[in-house]
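Ticket #4471: structure export looks truncated?
Reporter: QA, pipeline team
Priority: medium

Steps to reproduce: submit the single chain below to the structure queue and open the exported record.
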Amino acid sequence: MTEPTPPLLAWPPTLAMVKNDQKIPPEDDRDDVRLQQVLDAAISFVQRRRPQFNYDNDPLSDLPEPTQDHILGTMRLAYRWHVRRRSPDALVAMGAEGSARVPSFDPDIEQMLRIGRFARAVLG
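Actual output as written to the record:
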């Protein structure tokens, strides 16, 4: 039996899309308000950092639509910010094992969004 093909992602990403990506059941609404807040912030951040996309689906625009990796990167960035709120000092408790350092960036997300060290050089 083959798995169904996941649907294409659309801009802007929705709370339902983030929950689906993170395997959070749709009926689990405990963190919906906080998750929506970070998703809105991530969308705003990405639009500001990567203005070379047609985010408004304007048919008269010459800009390309956001790509699938761009949309997924935005969703993952939002969820990363959501999870990081539990470790503001960059440490997470691991019970008997002690604590572990949580890096402040995720290279996979930065690569999908072409930000951080994966940003294209700007000349001029």
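Status: closed, not a bug. The export was complete when the record was re-opened. Leaving a note from the reviewer for reference: The chain has one domain: 15-118.
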